[in-house]
Amino acid sequence: MDARRILLDSFRAAVAAADPLRVLAPALPEHEEIGRVRRTLAVGAGKAAASMALAVEQHWPGDAPLDGLVVTRYEHGLPCRRIEVVEAGHPVPDAAGEQAAARILERAVALGSGDLLLALVSGGGSSLLALPVDTVPIADLKAVTRALLASGAPIQEMNVVRKHLSRILGGRLAQRTRARVLALAISDVAGDDPSSIASGPCSPDPATYADALAILARWRVDAPVRVREHLARGARGEVDETPKPDDPLFARVEVRMVATAHRSLEAASVAFSRAGIRPVVLGDTVTGEARDVAQVMAAIAREIVRYDQPFARPVALISGGECTVTIRGRGRGGRCTEFLLALARELDGVPGVWAIAADTDGIDGSERNAGAILAPDTMSRASAAGLDARALLDDNDAWRFFDVLGDLVTTGPTRTNVNDYRALVLLPARAG
Predict the structure, then answer these.
(1) Checking DSSP bridges between strand 371-374 and strand 408-409, what pairing results, if any?
(2) Comparing C-alpha atoms, which of 371, 425, 382, 421 is closest to residue 404?
(3) In what order do the strands lie in the sheet with 371-374?
(4) Domain 262-426, CATH number (from 3.40.1480.10, 3.40.1180.10, 3.40.190.10, 3.60.15.10)
(5) For strand 288-289 and strand 278-283, is the pairing parallel, antiparallel, or unpaired?
(6) CA dist., res. 105 & res. 85, Å (int)
(7) What is the pTM of this model?
(8) 336 vs 41, 59, 291, 309, 400, CA distance in Å?
(9) What pLDDT is attached to residue 64?
(10) Which of 31, 96, 33 is nearest to 70 (CA)?
(11) How far is CA 100 from the centre of its chain?
(12) How far apart are CA 214 and CA 111, in angstroms?
């Protein structure tokens, strides 16, 4: 049994299930409904923004008005004819994203009640829609973003802060337009909460300025003075809050999920079943510090290997959800390779265990690999190559570990994002 090939096939199936060019069309309005709209403005942001825009163009009636602007990460663009695609900085925002977000907001404000705002929302949009409030310069937004990324804070909490520093996130895009809003979302967050996907530019925000300040304190984030001052003014009621769930404006807003992590896990399950391996979906909300998640997964794997409980081999344990990494060292890598390196140390000597961890957007952290593969002989090969797994993990240098072993998974930009994909395959000793 070629476990490496099976793992890669399962990952490809998970990504394909979230490809906008394959799955977006059913979420679009019916042609009859489109014909009743005076004009449609398509706007959006995220790693999937360009492929979502192209999918819209491919299925939109040729005689129906359509134009727009979406912003995506550098190297994630695609050629579109009716919708402009701009590339900008991610995960740290930059001036290109700020300028694109300002243009999106300006065009949305100009729409009337007979128009449709088609919002194409996907993971990564929080950074790409970098339009801070007037009192917070883009340099300060960059600084607090870097600090949050290094703190280990979960993405939902990071987004609470970013919403309260923005003129467009946290429901403010929908608030500023008179048009009917249809938001098509590709979910990269646990639970598929629309308010967390790209910080919910068209969704109500239940969080407050006080929540944002508490998050900075909880994760010991040293935010710039102007960031703290703005949040403090908001907590005192001196700055308008983001629109809340009871705001009547959301009566003209609809959100449709185009792709989710769970649908991708189900697609991966089919790939394993075809290979004769029983798939077990542990869920799409498996989150926490990458090292801690690895420890739990290793404990389950040991139980299966020793006792064939709670699942008999061959079995694949499949999960999704965004782990976090607290930066302690100066190495290279992301949460997927960090998870796998921690798992390798935990499983050292346990036979018949293979694993893959890869981000469905094709980018693990800030590197050009999607993730990596773990084999039963990973630690022995690492030892032969002179790699100190513990030292590399302490330095957050998991990328180097798997690069030296030749076990990185590299796909290039997938132009979608339903978060991390993880699978452990446990084989009987004779097959491992």
Answers:
(1) antiparallel
(2) 382
(3) 278-283, 315-320, 420-426, 353-359, 371-374, 408-409
(4) 3.40.1480.10
(5) unpaired
(6) 15
(7) 0.93
(8) 37, 35, 10, 26, 13
(9) 96
(10) 96
(11) 20
(12) 37
Q: For 168-322, list the strands marked E by DSSP.
A: 180-186, 253-259, 278-283, 288-289, 315-320
Domain spans of the chain, in order of start: 19-131+166-207+242-259, 262-426
- Separation in Å, CA 222 to CA 140, 151, 164, 354, 370: 11, 10, 17, 40, 30
Nearest to 285 by CA among 262, 263, 301, 310: 262
Task: Look at residue 226 and give its three-state secondary structure.
Answer: helix
Token look-up 């409904």 returns: 33
Two structure tokens written together for 329? 């060292």
Q: Which residues pair with 43 in a beta bridge?
A: 69, 119
Distance CA 26, CA 2 (A): 36
CATH number given to 19-131+166-207+242-259: 3.40.50.10180
Phi then psi for residue 421, to 5 deg, are -120, 130
- 29 DSSP assignment: P
Reported residue count of the chain is: 432
Work out whether strand 315-320 and strand 116-122 pair parallel, antiparallel, or are unpaired.
unpaired
- Say if residue 430's pLDDT is above 80: no
Q: What is the pLDDT of residues 39-78, one digit of tens each?
A: 999 999 999 999 999 999 999 999 999 999 999 999 999 9
Phi, psi of 186 (to 5 degrees): -110, 115
| pLDDT exceeds 90 at position 429 | no
pLDDT tens-digit profile of 300-353?
A: 999 999 999 999 999 999 999 989 898 889 999 999 999 999 999 999 989 999
